[in-house]
Design goal:
Elements lengths: L8 E3 L5 E3 L3 E2 L5 H14 L3 E3 L7 H11 L7 E6 L6 H15 L6 E4 L7 H13 L6 E4 L3 H8 L8 E5 L7 H10 L2 E5 L11 H10 L3 H11 L3 E3 L5 H8 L8 H7 L17
Parallel strand pairs: 3-4, 4-5, 5-6, 6-7, 7-8, 8-9, 9-10
Antiparallel strand pairs: 1-2
Amino acid sequence: MSELSLSATIPTNQSNSVPLLGLGVWKSRPKECYEAVKSALEFGYRHIDTAAIYGNEADVGVAIRDSGIHRNDIFLVTKLWNADQGYDEAQKAIDVSLKKLGTDYVDMYLIHFPVSGKRKDSWKALEKIKKDGKAKSIGVSNFMVSHLEELLKETDIVPAMNQVEFHPFLQDTELKNYCSTKGILLEAYSPLAHGQKLEDERVTRLAKKYNKSNAQILIRWSLQAGNVVIPKSKNPIRIKENADVFDFQLSREDMEEISSWNENFRTCWDPTTVE
């Protein structure tokens, strides 16, 4: 996949395209978040992922405005938090997020988690939000196959994206294949497994082989596997390093080896336990 680049995008099923690599800002405190987003945009990132629960939407918005980059050239994502789920609540929540972000639309609005008893009404709200132009595309996060099957029985709008934890040590191939057959982009959050597997000797061996960092090996694998990827960092050096993954290509043999590393190693919440 030598055509991969920092400016590369992939079309969604809802008539817009998302940059393959983005910056996640989970657990980035306000000033840190501002500096991280500003740095990422300077380095060439055009995809920023935040959420209402992160508490830093306002700082993301200020960083985007201060960057001098036209709003239309940035793919901005935020998410509907669990406490705001429901039809009426979700429509209020997007207005709060837009005000904090300082914009009149987001490029992608996601249901953050498949909350039992509310996720159907939340999706109906997202349909209205999309129709009203407050979100160019809508999708979900942490939805498993059962949640997607339930949703698709209730709607004609297929989610544009499903953002889930995905890395070499947590590969839900059933979910990935299901999303692929339905035209849903799989976006990998925590592609570095929260750093808990960075020093794995197998990753280190490949990093030495390609003269790259361990993190770059994991990010490159996820990109070549066809995922949208949003590594999170507050460190400008790391942010730049995470984007320096387009001057090499993992061989087919190495891709296959990494694809055999699955341990169902989940570092974040477990949506498989949600009804």
